[in-house]
């Protein structure tokens, strides 16, 4: 895909959705961290239902730590792998209190040192909570990048590096959200909705679907 097409793709995304953001509900960087930690193998809708119960009771590292693993699990039973996620979240809260003064760090290295936080989660926090121009490659972004030929790669790190290289600088801050939403609602996994796609004429997917 040539630079002109990439420029046009993101210009259209911006025109259609000038201020994209996550569909996870949060008010603070810590609430976002909790929501993203819970989001693995879950829909945002499912995570929001759980955090709607949890956050009014506990939305700080101290408050969640005070619940303990078993107490936290009671709020997360609708979440996939809730036991493991509860354990990781308790460990993360302890580290935030002990090493970061209960503040979510604005550093990739510090974020990735937290239990359950990998590169993708760190990128989401850096982008959405702190405004860094990072791109977190999830299954949606991986699929869209490869299917459209926007930034094809064999694994998520390769796709991330290509997106960082190919996405025009003026669109990099919001690219993460545009691509996730496009993959979630239009360029879906089983049967992409090519007929209602705003970048259909720019996309280089060979097997477009129109019915």
Task: Give a concise summary.
By secondary structure, the chain is an all-alpha fold. It has helices at residues 3-16, 29-38, 44-54, 61-76, 82-100, 108-112, 119-129, 139-148, 156-166, 172-185.
According to CATH, the homologous superfamily of the largest domain is: Hypothetical protein, domain 2
Low confidence ranges? none
Q: State the helix count.
A: 10
Order of helices and strands: HHHHHHHHHH
Per-chain topology:
Blueprint: H1 3-16, H2 29-38, H3 44-54, H4 61-76, H5 82-100, H6 108-112, H7 119-129, H8 139-148, H9 156-166, H10 172-185
Helix pairs in contact: 2-7, 4-5, 8-10
Notes on the protein architecture:
- It is a single chain.
- This protein is an all-alpha fold and 211 residues long.
- The chain folds into 2 domains: 3-17 and 134-196, Endonuclease Iii, domain 2 (Orthogonal Bundle), CATH 1.10.1670; 29-129, Hypothetical protein, domain 2 (Endonuclease III, domain 1, Orthogonal Bundle), CATH 1.10.340.
- It is 57% helix and 0% strand.
- It has helices at 3-16, 29-38, 44-54, 61-76, 82-100, 108-112, 119-129, 139-148, 156-166, 172-185.
- α2 packs antiparallel against α7 (119-129) and α8 packs across α10.
- The longest helix has 19 residues, at 82-100.
- It is elongated and about 55 Å long.
- The model has no long low-confidence stretch (mean pLDDT 94).
